[in-house]
Amino acid sequence: MDIYIKSFNRAYLLHRTIASIYHYLNGFDGRIIVLDDGTPQKYLNKIVELFPDIQIVKSPYYEQKSKDISLNKLPEKVIPADFWRDEVLKGSEYFILLEDDMWFTQPINYKDFSKDVYNLKMDMIKFLWLKNNKLISDNVIQKTKYFNIVQPKVLTKNRFLFDAVFRTNKFKLGSVAMRLFNHKLELLRYYHLYIVAGGVFSKRYYETVWKTNQNTVDELKQVSQLFKSKFKVKVGNTKNEILRTSCKTTATLISKEHLDVTIDIFKVNKLLNDAWLINIVYDVFDFNNNIPTAWIKNVLTSDKMNKSLFKEWQIWYKKIEFTYNKIECILE
Q: Contact at 8 Å (CB) between 137 and 189?
């Protein structure tokens, strides 16, 4: 199985993502392909020096975005969804898709794991659920050494009814549903069937959920696409979470604008990337812990032009934590 990593301007995190693959995936002999959307070349050069066997494929927006970032300009707000889809469909029948803020935390025998994925014809296996067991199904129908195959129980798999209740509120069905049952819980159960990244995918699954051209990530639309296809997906999750993610930074504020806080995230990432580039960096090989706040503070407070940047980051991150806690996810 190939491993794809979606990357955008966070080389300091990408370093750990790749390091964790080599550290924990015993017997790994596949390809690691970084799908990059604008990380300035000087940072990618160091990644290639550290990991000469990886491949880097650049999105159609790469040149303009990397130029804008290098000139301290805001890059265009466009998600390269079609690029991700088209690239993964060129590779192995089953593949792992990660983001550059994810890293492995537990060992697996990659060949045995891959063999089970192929033999059982899995469509999606989730590696990450932020300690929120409501995001994985307890209806286990088969177990392997590394993962459970589940049959999620959701309110409806009828595309039109799903859209009306959870997406469009057509005929006020969403409003009615909120009064009749736990709307949030029912919605979370659909994530037993779906993830953006952080697990295994089959080509047919990924092509289906990203079938229409998209320049945004609309998760509920992708679930709707799955129901529209009407094929029976085979999904599961690893027995334990084997992946973690850092929410201490973000690649872009596109999905975070609802927080009502202001932070120059591109400035934050530039400072952290530049510190990493000259080896002022956290312990990349500490796979048990998140990136240290102390390191972020040390780097951000070194910017004499913006003395309030670290305080702004603290306020922003508290909002992030609050948002995840509302849906019972735990950030560590």
A: yes
Q: CA angle, corner 114, sides to 111 and 119, nearest 5?
A: 120
Structure tokens at 308: 């309030």
Query: Which burial class, exposed, middle or buried, applies to 121 when counting CB atoms under 10 A from its CB (0-12, 13-18, 19+)?
Result: exposed
Main-chain phi, psi angles of 50, to 5 degrees: -75, -35
DSSP letter string, 146-207: SEEEE----S---HHHHIIIIII-GGGHHHHHHHHS-HHHHHHHGGGS--SSSEEEEHHHHH
Residues constituting the chain: 332
Task: Encode pLDDT of 90-120 as tens digits.
Answer: 999 999 999 999 999 999 999 999 999 999 9
The separation between CA 186 and the C-alpha centre of its own chain, rounded to angstroms, equals 22
Work out the angle at residue 243's Cα, subtended by the Cα atoms of residues 105 and 296, and round it to the nearest 5 degrees. 80
Report pLDDT digits (tens) over 291-303: 999 999 999 999 7
The whole-model pTM stands at 0.93
Query: What's the pLDDT score for residue 191?
Result: 93
Contact residues for 106 (Cβ-Cβ < 8 A; gap 6+): 24, 240, 242
| DSSP reduced 3-state for 238 | strand
Closest CA relative to residue 168, chosen from 130, 220, 115, 205 = 220
Q: Which of 30, 17, 188 is nearest to 104 (CA)?
A: 17
Rounded distance between C-alpha atoms, residue 126 and residue 144, angstroms: 14
Alpha helical stretches, state H, the chain: 11-24, 41-50, 62-70, 81-88, 110-120, 159-162, 173-180, 183-189, 203-209, 219-229, 265-277, 293-300, 309-326
Query: What is the distance in angstroms between the CA of the first residue and the CA of the last residue of the chain?
Result: 29
* Strand 147-150 with 140-143, pairing: antiparallel
Contact 223, 209 (CB under 8 A): yes
Which pLDDT value is given to residue 214? 62
Name 196's Cβ contacts closer than 8 Å, sequence gap at least 6.
99, 217, 219
Question: Which strands make up the sheet holding 32-36, listed edge to edge?
Answer: 55-58, 32-36, 2-7, 94-99, 199-202, 124-126, 235-238, 147-150, 140-143
